[in-house]
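so the lab meeting is tmrw and i was supposed to have these ready like two days ago... anyway. pasting both below. for each one the top line is the aa sequence and the line under it is the structure tokens. i havent really looked at them closely yet so no promises
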Amino acid sequence: MKLTVIGAWGGYPKMDEASSGYLLEHDGYKLLIDCGSGVLSKLQNIIQPEELDGVIISHYHPDHIADIGVLQHARLIQGFLGKNMPTLPIYGHNLDQEEFVKLTYKNITKGMAYNPASRLSIGPFDISFIRTNHPVPCFAMRLEADRKSLVFTGDSSFKEEFIPFSQNADLLLCECNFYAHQNGAGAGHMTSTEAGRFARMAGVNQLVLTHLPHYGQLSDLINEAAKEFEGKILLAEQFLSIDV
């Protein structure tokens, strides 16, 4: 599996960058995980919108779905220009029907409801889910292919159930919207220290901190997480590419 960070900012995109969006590729299949503000602009540095095979959404906050409509219109326009444009499946939970129905647009995209209690197969990926601690329904995902595994937390404060869910994952893509001295529980977000402890307890191989704050010294997030986790830690950044 190859992971490419398209956007890593929490809340809104930093200038010339994007909020949450991650491209996961394996065996020629291209899956976009979340589609926040600015993602479509930045994605085109890697692949074109018509090259996507699928999209999966953790939850319906704007920093994770703002560019869904933009993606739909990009594929619509490319169809007008003569490109063969099969209907793109966009997977999301249906606990918010008002937002879920927006995943379907004409014959351009089709909203597909995943059942968080069941495993889901998308292309080469086998995906399982766990509900997170966040103000709206949100689901973390464990994506597996060819005996490799990636866990994406979505947005959440720390919960003990994450540990068995993420056990021995090759890569933990963990939200980290707060610094060690803060408390993100009320907002449904994790601190750097919690992310490091999470990685250590789950025995993951590598930790990537994402959904980053717009203030402070971001390198402190790594230093603080490293007090809990001795493995490799990276800050997610635009176009960071990792072979899982």
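ok protien two:
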Amino acid sequence: MNSKSSVIRFDPTAIQSTLDAVFTAVSEFKNTDAEKLRRLDEFVDPDTINQLFGGPGSSTTRIEEGALSFRYDDVFVTVTHDGWIEVVDADAFRTRPAHHRLSADARAQQSTEAALEAAAAAFAEAEEYVWTAASNTSDTELVDPLWAVVERLWAIQTSIDDLTAQSSSAEPLATRTDDQS
């Protein structure tokens, strides 16, 4: 990889699908042939990308604003509603400022409880946005997938609540988690 990140522009109304644009962006970033990349469906649902951002023959993106970020092998990929794809080296991604202006290093220095609290707040915010999108969409093909995401976010929030309850015991959460692996 030549740099820690790259950004390319793609046209969701072009013949090329968003998936093809993702493969092109990652292969250019990694300086390798797209055929040598691992299958995308090992990391994210490719149909979701096409539903949200347009696939072959689509006339526009399906979402009016927003982005989808996911880990793809040793990089993080962000696809935006307005036709941008950012590819970031995983190590660089971990150390850049997070959405809530808290760097990875600062998060690592916090207590387990503070980290869980920050995660709970982020998932609650994400759930609110997806809930609103699911409630307001008129695209029948997006309704069920959006509600499925809401349910997944609820499940994650429940898991975080469970971890928060566990972390209040005398034994540190990090030690218990490592021992259970």
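from a quick look at the 2nd one: The two ends are 32 Å apart (CA to CA). The helical segments are 18-30, 46-53, 90-95, 104-109, 112-136, 140-167, 173-180. will dig more after coffe
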